[in-house]
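Hi there,

I know you've been waiting on this one. I reran it after we fixed the sequence typo, so this is the corrected version. Both the input and the resulting structure follow.
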Amino acid sequence: MAKNILICGVGGQGTVLAAKVLSQAAVMKGERVLSAETIGMAQRGGSVVSHVRIGDDVYSPLIPKGQADIIIAFEAAEAVRNIDFLKKGGMVIVNKKVVQPTTASLTGITFSEDEMISFLEKNCKVTAVDTEKACQELGSTKIVNMILLGAACTTGLVDKNQLKDALKELVKPAFYELNVKAVDYWK
């Protein structure tokens, strides 16, 4: 049975590395993985969406709408924007922090994390993660991606030990322990 994991956020948040860690963890377990990123204007803070599909019966790297088992959202508005990918009964792991788009400063129209989280809670199962608090406790703002992957482990679709093994392969040794602490942060 396939596992479909959609990761979304904005450029610079580490979504692509998170997808690589998930993919590597599955490959190291002997599973078949297809993945793809739709990056767009990521370098300018634009949307980044990564599709990770794991299983023998997966033939396309892109998750069809309504088929994602889980959405891991690095930003609440991106979770709302990509909610159509979530299957009925699926779950959203979402960073509570909202990143206001550049256009908000031009138009004066902004939105709040409460609005985004409230919308999500009305439409699916949600785990909202206070990554700012976690980053402060762990001493780095560069580990939001691993904090969210650690939270995704509560779904059963992702295994913490596999993530840690994949991190050994993908991150510099100097950053390995910090990333492991981030994965372990969410109980």
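Quick highlight: Strands lie at 3-10, 33-38, 47-54, 68-73, 86-95, 125-129.

Best,
R. S.
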